[in-house]
Protein backbone atom coordinates (compact mmCIF):
# COMPACT_ATOMS: atom_id res chain seq x y z
CA UNK A 1 0.00 0.00 0.00
CA UNK A 2 1.21 3.48 -0.83
CA UNK A 3 0.78 6.42 1.51
CA UNK A 4 -2.76 7.60 2.31
CA UNK A 5 -4.12 4.04 1.98
CA UNK A 6 -4.14 4.03 -1.82
CA UNK A 7 -3.00 0.83 -3.50
CA UNK A 8 0.20 0.89 -5.49
CA UNK A 9 0.11 -0.21 -9.13
CA UNK A 10 2.40 -3.14 -8.24
CA UNK A 11 -0.27 -4.53 -5.88
CA UNK A 12 -2.60 -5.10 -8.85
CA UNK A 13 -0.03 -7.07 -10.87
CA UNK A 14 -0.56 -10.76 -11.27
CA UNK A 15 2.03 -13.27 -10.18
CA UNK A 16 2.80 -14.05 -13.82
CA UNK A 17 3.44 -10.39 -14.60
CA UNK A 18 5.74 -10.03 -11.60
CA UNK A 19 7.63 -13.17 -12.59
CA UNK A 20 8.01 -11.90 -16.16
CA UNK A 21 9.23 -8.56 -14.89
CA UNK A 22 11.81 -10.31 -12.65
CA UNK A 23 12.87 -12.53 -15.56
CA UNK A 24 13.54 -9.60 -17.87
CA UNK A 25 15.29 -7.62 -15.14
CA UNK A 26 17.50 -10.62 -14.41
CA UNK A 27 18.19 -11.03 -18.11
CA UNK A 28 19.29 -7.39 -18.28
CA UNK A 29 21.56 -7.87 -15.25
CA UNK A 30 23.04 -10.93 -16.94
CA UNK A 31 23.63 -9.01 -20.19
CA UNK A 32 25.35 -6.24 -18.25
CA UNK A 33 27.45 -8.67 -16.19
CA UNK A 34 28.63 -10.71 -19.16
CA UNK A 35 29.34 -7.63 -21.25
CA UNK A 36 27.08 -8.72 -24.08
CA UNK A 37 26.23 -6.04 -26.57
CA UNK A 38 23.11 -4.13 -25.63
CA UNK A 39 20.67 -2.47 -27.99
CA UNK A 40 22.56 0.45 -29.53
CA UNK A 41 19.58 2.80 -29.32
CA UNK A 42 19.13 2.19 -25.61
CA UNK A 43 22.84 2.70 -24.96
CA UNK A 44 22.86 5.87 -27.09
CA UNK A 45 19.91 7.29 -25.17
CA UNK A 46 21.93 6.96 -21.96
CA UNK A 47 25.06 8.63 -23.37
CA UNK A 48 24.44 11.95 -21.62
CA UNK A 49 23.81 10.19 -18.31
CA UNK A 50 26.93 8.07 -18.72
CA UNK A 51 28.98 11.21 -19.40
CA UNK A 52 27.67 12.76 -16.18
CA UNK A 53 28.52 9.57 -14.30
CA UNK A 54 32.08 9.78 -15.61
CA UNK A 55 32.31 13.37 -14.31
CA UNK A 56 31.02 12.21 -10.92
CA UNK A 57 33.56 9.40 -10.73
CA UNK A 58 36.28 11.88 -11.66
CA UNK A 59 35.16 14.18 -8.83
CA UNK A 60 35.13 11.24 -6.44
CA UNK A 61 38.70 10.23 -7.37
CA UNK A 62 39.88 13.84 -7.26
CA UNK A 63 38.54 14.30 -3.72
CA UNK A 64 40.33 11.18 -2.55
CA UNK A 65 43.58 12.23 -4.21
CA UNK A 66 43.31 15.79 -2.87
CA UNK A 67 42.88 14.48 0.68
CA UNK A 68 45.98 12.30 0.30
CA UNK A 69 48.01 15.16 -1.18
CA UNK A 70 47.02 17.64 1.54
CA UNK A 71 47.92 15.11 4.22
CA UNK A 72 51.33 14.44 2.66
CA UNK A 73 51.91 18.19 2.25
CA UNK A 74 51.09 18.80 5.92
CA UNK A 75 53.48 16.07 7.04
CA UNK A 76 56.29 17.36 4.87
CA UNK A 77 55.60 20.93 5.91
CA UNK A 78 55.92 19.92 9.57
CA UNK A 79 59.17 18.05 8.93
CA UNK A 80 60.79 20.88 6.97
CA UNK A 81 59.66 23.45 9.54
CA UNK A 82 61.14 21.39 12.33
CA UNK A 83 64.44 20.96 10.48
CA UNK A 84 64.56 24.63 9.55
CA UNK A 85 63.88 25.67 13.15
CA UNK A 86 66.58 23.32 14.46
CA UNK A 87 69.10 24.72 11.99
CA UNK A 88 68.14 28.26 12.98
CA UNK A 89 68.56 27.48 16.68
CA UNK A 90 71.91 25.81 15.96
CA UNK A 91 73.13 28.87 14.04
CA UNK A 92 71.98 31.20 16.82
CA UNK A 93 73.73 29.03 19.42
CA UNK A 94 76.97 29.04 17.38
CA UNK A 95 76.66 32.81 16.88
CA UNK A 96 76.79 33.32 20.65
CA UNK A 97 80.22 31.64 20.72
CA UNK A 98 81.58 33.51 17.70
CA UNK A 99 81.99 37.29 18.13
CA UNK A 100 83.30 37.91 14.62
CA UNK A 101 81.38 39.15 11.58
CA UNK A 102 80.61 35.49 10.72
CA UNK A 103 78.92 35.12 14.12
CA UNK A 104 76.68 38.11 13.40
CA UNK A 105 75.76 36.59 10.03
CA UNK A 106 75.02 33.22 11.66
CA UNK A 107 72.79 34.99 14.22
CA UNK A 108 70.86 36.86 11.51
CA UNK A 109 70.53 33.71 9.38
CA UNK A 110 69.43 31.69 12.42
CA UNK A 111 66.74 34.26 13.27
CA UNK A 112 65.55 34.29 9.65
CA UNK A 113 65.37 30.46 9.58
CA UNK A 114 63.40 30.33 12.86
CA UNK A 115 61.01 32.99 11.56
CA UNK A 116 60.60 31.14 8.28
CA UNK A 117 59.85 27.91 10.16
CA UNK A 118 57.13 29.69 12.17
CA UNK A 119 55.57 31.12 9.00
CA UNK A 120 55.65 27.69 7.39
CA UNK A 121 53.85 26.21 10.41
CA UNK A 122 51.20 28.93 10.06
CA UNK A 123 50.20 27.27 6.76
CA UNK A 124 49.03 24.19 8.67
CA UNK A 125 45.82 25.86 9.90
CA UNK A 126 44.44 26.73 6.45
CA UNK A 127 45.55 23.33 5.15
CA UNK A 128 43.71 21.60 7.98
CA UNK A 129 40.64 23.64 7.15
CA UNK A 130 40.92 22.68 3.46
CA UNK A 131 41.35 19.03 4.39
CA UNK A 132 38.29 19.19 6.65
CA UNK A 133 36.17 20.87 3.95
CA UNK A 134 37.16 18.35 1.28
CA UNK A 135 36.57 15.44 3.68
CA UNK A 136 33.13 16.81 4.58
CA UNK A 137 32.28 17.26 0.89
CA UNK A 138 33.48 13.76 0.14
CA UNK A 139 31.61 12.19 3.05
CA UNK A 140 28.35 14.00 2.50
CA UNK A 141 27.88 15.12 -1.09
CA UNK A 142 29.83 12.38 -2.82
CA UNK A 143 28.45 9.55 -0.68
CA UNK A 144 24.86 10.86 -1.01
CA UNK A 145 25.30 11.11 -4.76
CA UNK A 146 26.78 7.61 -4.84
CA UNK A 147 23.70 6.21 -3.08
CA UNK A 148 21.47 8.02 -5.58
CA UNK A 149 23.54 6.59 -8.44
CA UNK A 150 23.11 3.06 -7.10
CA UNK A 151 19.32 3.55 -6.95
CA UNK A 152 19.39 5.05 -10.46
CA UNK A 153 21.41 2.08 -11.76
CA UNK A 154 18.84 -0.31 -10.31
CA UNK A 155 16.03 1.67 -11.95
CA UNK A 156 17.95 1.77 -15.23
CA UNK A 157 18.44 -2.00 -15.12
CA UNK A 158 14.73 -2.47 -14.46
CA UNK A 159 13.89 -0.05 -17.28
CA UNK A 160 16.19 -1.79 -19.73
CA UNK A 161 14.71 -5.13 -18.70
CA UNK A 162 11.24 -3.75 -19.44
CA UNK A 163 12.50 -2.53 -22.82
CA UNK A 164 13.81 -6.02 -23.59
CA UNK A 165 10.44 -7.45 -22.64
CA UNK A 166 8.61 -4.92 -24.81
CA UNK A 167 10.94 -5.67 -27.71
CA UNK A 168 10.30 -9.40 -27.32
CA UNK A 169 6.51 -8.94 -27.14
CA UNK A 170 6.46 -6.43 -30.01
CA UNK A 171 8.22 -8.90 -32.30
CA UNK A 172 5.34 -11.31 -31.82
CA UNK A 173 2.73 -8.57 -32.05
CA UNK A 174 -0.04 -8.95 -34.59
CA UNK A 175 -2.16 -5.79 -34.57
CA UNK A 176 -5.21 -7.80 -35.70
CA UNK A 177 -5.16 -9.91 -32.54
CA UNK A 178 -6.65 -8.00 -29.64
CA UNK A 179 -5.21 -10.37 -27.01
CA UNK A 180 -1.64 -9.71 -28.14
CA UNK A 181 -2.30 -5.96 -28.18
CA UNK A 182 -3.53 -6.16 -24.56
CA UNK A 183 -0.41 -8.12 -23.65
CA UNK A 184 1.76 -5.40 -25.17
CA UNK A 185 -0.15 -2.71 -23.24
CA UNK A 186 0.46 -4.60 -19.99
CA UNK A 187 4.18 -4.73 -20.64
From TrEMBL:
Molecular-function annotations in GO: protein domain specific binding
Gene3D superfamilies according to UniProt: Arfaptin homology (AH) domain/BAR domain
SUPFAM superfamilies listed in its UniProt record: BAR/IMD domain-like (SSF103657)
Domain AH: 44-187
Cited InterPro entries: AH/BAR_dom_sf, AH_dom, Islet_autoAg_Ica1/Ica1-like
Gene Ontology cellular-component terms listed: cytoplasm; endomembrane system
Name of the protein in question: Islet cell autoantigen 1 like
Encoding gene (name): ICA1L
